[in-house]
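yo, HAD superfamily hydrolase (TIGR01509 family) is done. seq:
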Amino acid sequence: MLKAFIFDMDGVIIDSEPLHYEVDIETMNYFGHVIEHEQLDKYVGMTNPEMWKSIRVEYQVMQSVEEIIEYQLARKISGLRSLDIEPIEGIRELIQNIKNRELLVGIASSSPRIFIEEVVSKFGIAEYFDCIVSGEEVAKGKPAPDVYLEAALQLGVEPQDCLVLEDSRNGITAAKAAGMGCIGYVNLNSGNQDLSQADEVVKKISDIKLENWKIGFKHLER
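structure:
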C-alpha cells in the first residue's frame, strides 16, 4: 500500500530548469564551446558528473569534469540565491496533503546535495522531508534506479509502496526501474520530455489525487 511519496526536485518542486539551461550554456561558452538549449534536453534528470562526462567527450572539452562542475555549480547557486521564486504552484498544498495522510516524504534528485539543500532552505520546507538523496551519492544516477532505491531504504519502506513525482524521461525510467509508481508532470521548461512510461501524467500539480492510488499501482481509479 502507499506508504511514501518521493519527489524529484528540479522541474517538480522548483522550476529551476531555465536556470540549469542558462548556466550550462554559459559554462560551455566559458570553456570555448557552443551548445544549444535543445541539445541539453536529453540530459535533464541526469547527475552533473554523468552529464558533463558525456558532453566533455562529445564536444572535446579540454577541462576536467571537476573543473567544469566547479565553475557551473558556483554560478547555479549564485543564480538560485538571486531568484525571486516560489515552489511550483500546488507543491506546498501537495506536501501538506501528503503529511496529513501520514505518509513519509522524500526527495531523490540528480542535483548535488548542496543545491538541493539550498532549494529546500530557500522555500522553508526542509522540515517536511524524511530523507534527501542526491544522485551523486549512489553508484549510478538516473535513469538507473539507484537513487530511488536508496530513498526507499532510508525511508524504511519497500519500493512498491512508494509513489514518485517526476518531470523527465530519465527520472521516470529510474522510478519505474525501481518498481515504484510514478506520476509524470508536464513542465514545458524541462524541454521535450517523453513521459509515456509514467503511470499517470498531469499538467497541474493540483490534478494529483492521492486517494486514487491503490496497492501495487496497477489499478488507478478514475
